[in-house]
Specification:
This protein has helices at about 1-35, 40-50, 60-70, 75-85, 95-110, 115-125, 135-145, 150-160, 170-180, 185-195, 200-215. With about 220 residues, the protein is mainly α.
Amino acid sequence: MILSIVLMVILVVLIVFIINRKSIKIKILEEEAEKGNPETQLALGLMFYSGVQIPVNKEKGCEYIKKAAENGNAQAQYLYSGIVLGADSGNTPSKEQLLEAASWIQKAADGGFLAAVTTLANMYAEGKILQKDSKKAQHYFLKAAEMGDIQSQLTVAGIYHFSIGMDRTIGYAWYKTAEHNGNEYAAEASAKLYEELSDEDKSEALRKSDEYISKYAGKKLS
């Protein structure tokens, strides 16, 4: 009986100790977040929003994610765009929400967050939220391709392959880069394009493909 009581007391002490350690850790993080550290603010936001180690508090999570976004964290800016759109609500976003989200996506893209870059490229290509702009779409697809996004590499390759007046040797180089990153369609497309080139262009295409693979294939993202 006494042993059982002792064990119970030890268990309670351990539980209290664990809770206190978590409370201390959260307190330290909150103090750091209040100093304006965007990485800490984002981490806390995600913890509260998803309930990692602490009870779920989406409102508080959103507040911290917004602070991180306002302090220039590109990942937070992209995540906050989803919050603005009401990703969890299931409601259709208003025009104002769409434009505000687009603004945050733009900031995240300018900050070099890949998912934001590809999203922005598609937004300009589709013209549903932002005004359709093929030049801006190509700019952001190229940026994403250079960051290692395989789908963007294929998109850029297709633009150079099929658009009138474009340098098709560059299209071949992007196909080969995507192929080097493991895309099977790119292998077929590059072979087809290669057969369409003149002997002089084939030589230039091979030179450029070596250059592009060296620059961009190593940036393949998981």
